[in-house]
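User: My collaborator sent over this chain with a note saying "see what the structure looks like." That's all I know about it. Can you take a look?
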Amino acid sequence: MRSNSAILIALLMLLPVFQIQAQDRSPEEDPSPVEIEEITVTAQRTILTLYNQLEAAKIGLYAAYNELNQNDDFDVECRRSDWTHTRIQEQICWPKFATELIAEMFQDSFRGIAGVNGISIAEIENQYSEEFDQLKSSILQVAVENPEVASWLMEVGKLEQDIKRREQECLENPAFQFLFFRLCKVN
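Assistant: Without extra context I'll predict from the sequence alone. Here is the result:
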């Protein structure tokens, strides 16, 4: 992006010079137009770039979905959270029904109601799997009916596959295995 801007600025600066030279020439001296070679540079995106693009794509997907979704409980909100209580933030996208359920469970845990203290996100997803399945069906139905949502859904899927492939390649790299042997070690 920066190199394209630099090229554009350089061309704009040279434009008056070319105009002056063109005015000085007679029609017989005018040579055929000069073709400028176009150079395209492609590079592999870093995993961090892929993660950032995935976060942006999820925000776009859920924003488009929320506008067309009829059930407000299935509206999905994405926000940055440090739920691990570290300074490392992660984007979390949750449907309204799950957010309300988690808030209710935390309130119950503060009130001392037995059985709700220490419930994990995975347990919530398992316990309310039917609602999450209905949400997935709703997203697919809206995507079938709306090309914009379908496009966002395809972009999210493509980015998730790219990230998974890149992570697998990284794990298969011998240098990575040597440096992080304990992380890769299977017990």
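A starting point for your reply to your collaborator: The chain has a mean pLDDT of 77.
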